[in-house]
Amino acid sequence: MVVDDHPMWRDAVARDLAEAGFAVVATAGDGPQAVRRARATRPDVLVLDLNLPGLPGARVCQEVAGEDGPRVLVLSASGEHADVLEAVKAGATGYLVKSAGTEELIDAVHRTARGDAVFTPGLAGLVLGEYRRLAAGPEPTRGKPDAPRLTARETEVLRLVAKGLSYKQIAERLVISHRTVQNHVQNTLGKLQLHNRVELVRYAIEAGLDDEGDGEGRPGTGR
């Protein structure tokens, strides 16, 4: 589904995605319409502009993203750090600026559908840096006595997710199948009561897993 308040841009993006083999199930030109149509059509991926009449894109993301909702790829003219962080905190899986080429957009939609976190170059570091800042706050996740226990393999996969590796890269690194990686991620999401990969990355960074070496990070070892 494609959401943008500029008809020509919206139609062009929808056309490019359709020509690339995607089924574009709906489009919308304002925030309330986007929420209604997303709930009605249940797309796998929502390509979302932030500057929308009626309801801001970040609010749309909050309304529709989640465990049963679409993965949200923001496609915005703004590359401002505040906009990027607001979108990610609202549940967006990725963020591209509109200067991206058609091939980059198509690749981003494919990767978003697989559950990868996709960002315009330079923005991924910003998001990870913000999560590290939040992790340094007064109530970090690490050390909570009731924290769920993960298996050694789940912790290993989680650590690689936090480092920004795609599922394919993790599978190659650990010599396991792409499906097995997905299963470990889904099991971990369930145990941690999280909804998407972005939340999983934040949890891993708060737990310090993104700073560990390849042979470390087993549960119950205190890192």
From TrEMBL:
CDD domains: LuxR_C_like, REC_NarL-like. Pfam families: GerE (PF00196), Response_reg (PF00072). SUPFAM superfamilies: C-terminal effector domain of the bipartite response regulators, CheY-like. Residues 1-113 form the Response regulatory domain. It comes from the Bacteria. InterPro entries: CheY-like_superfamily (IPR011006), NreC/VraR/RcsB-like_REC (IPR058245), Sig_transdc_resp-reg_C-effctor (IPR016032), Sig_transdc_resp-reg_receiver (IPR001789), Tscrpt_reg_LuxR_C (IPR000792), WalR-like (IPR039420). Keywords: DNA-binding, Phosphoprotein. The modification 4-aspartylphosphate is found at D49. Residues 143-208 form the HTH luxR-type domain. PANTHER family: TWO-COMPONENT RESPONSE REGULATOR (PTHR43214). This is Response regulator.
